[in-house]
Amino acid sequence: MKRVSDLAEKLDMLLKACSLSRVALAQQVGVDKSLVGRWVKGTIHPGEHNLARLTGVFQQHYPTFTLAHWYEETADLAKRIGLAIRPDAGARIETIPDGPFAKIVATSEPEIEFRAKAYEGFWRTTRPSLVMPGELFHDYGMFRLNDEGMIDVLMEGAGLTFTGWMFPMAGNLYVFLFDPVGRTPLIVLMKGVTLPRANSLEGLLLLSALDPARTPAAFPIVLERVGDLSGDREVDDARMREIIEAQPAPLEPLGEDVLRKATYRDVGPEVAKAGGPLFMAVTGALSHGSTSNGLRG
User: Fold this and answer.
1) How is the chain split among helix, strand and coil, in percent rounded to 5?
2) Phi/psi of residue 206, each to 5°?
3) What does the buried/exposed string (b/e) look like for 33-54 if buried means 16 or more CB atoms within 10 Å of the residue's CB?
4) Alpha-carbon gap, residue 42 to 129, rounded angstroms
């Protein structure tokens, strides 16, 4: 097998681009996390079988990615997946200046710097189910600031995993996720909070359902905090797995009646005639925050 030059740098770049931790990658490849660590450090090179497994993992995020692309120059590989390497910042990566997310990243950077800590933590989502009408569906996940100054988002539910980034802008939160099973992006727009710690968030979710028609749909969605990060990435990764398995209740539950009213709502011309909403919109009534001295709002 031909060795891949600069494999450690390429692997690290792909992990960051996909918002994957070493622990998550190890679980998907089926190896110990320490082995992934040695690959990223460059102290050992994966064998042919594991390189193929790595390729399969990254194909979930970049469907055109193949085994042959490992052998490209690092800058060419970065460009292929929509990234640029800053020569003055080591292995730091960023979206290509004329890429689709460049202006979003640039606009959100100041708010990420000052507001990321308000949203970091473990969360539970509540949303309607398209394929099971009347049912409430929960995902569990994590918001975490990464070393490149981006807010990583990881969500899991019913065996599905969604990864991506969150961008706070102008009082709202824009979340872009990718679903490797449905092989489609998901977009969430939520109303943010002004206080230092977010306890719950209200928004709208746009997705393609996993029904046979892959129906495009928009749903209300509510997030409730279920825990805080420790600051140790490995500890938090392990805690994330525990939360997904245990499915704990939120720290400050809104209650099923409130969640059902928020996620199953009537809108449209007939409702508007009676004084209700004409369109599905987010007022932020369930986006709550708090301070360390107990102030809430």
Assistant:
1) 35, 30, 40
2) -115, 125
3) beebeebbeeeeebeeebbebb
4) 44
pLDDT tens-digit series, residues 19-76: 788 888 888 898 888 888 889 988 889 988 899 999 999 998 888 889 999 999 988 8
187, β-bridge pairs = 176, 206
Interatomic CA distance for residues 74 and 203, integer angstroms: 38
Which numeric CATH code is attached to 102-263? 2.40.128
Reported residue count of the chain is: 297
Beta strand extents in the chain (DSSP E only): 83-85, 93-95, 121-128, 136-137, 140-145, 151-157, 160-169, 172-179, 184-191, 197-208, 216-227, 288-290
- Whole-structure pTM value: 0.70
Q: Burial letters for 86-122: b for 16+ Cβ neighbours within 10 Å, e otherwise?
A: eeeeeeebbbeeeeeeeebbeebeebbeebbebbbbb
Average pLDDT for 79-90: 63
DSSP structure class, residue 296: B
Residue 158 in this model has a pLDDT that exceeds 50: yes
Ordered by start, the domain boundaries in the chain are: 7-95, 102-263
> Rounded to whole angstroms, how far apart are CA atoms 263 and 202?
10
The 8-class DSSP code of residue 93 comes to E
The C-alpha R_g of the chain, in whole angstroms, comes to: 20
Query: What is the topology classification, in CATH, of domain 7-95?
Result: 434 Repressor (Amino-terminal Domain) (1.10.260)
Q: Among 233, 264, 242, which Cα is nearest to 129's? A: 264
Supply the DSSP symbol for 175: E
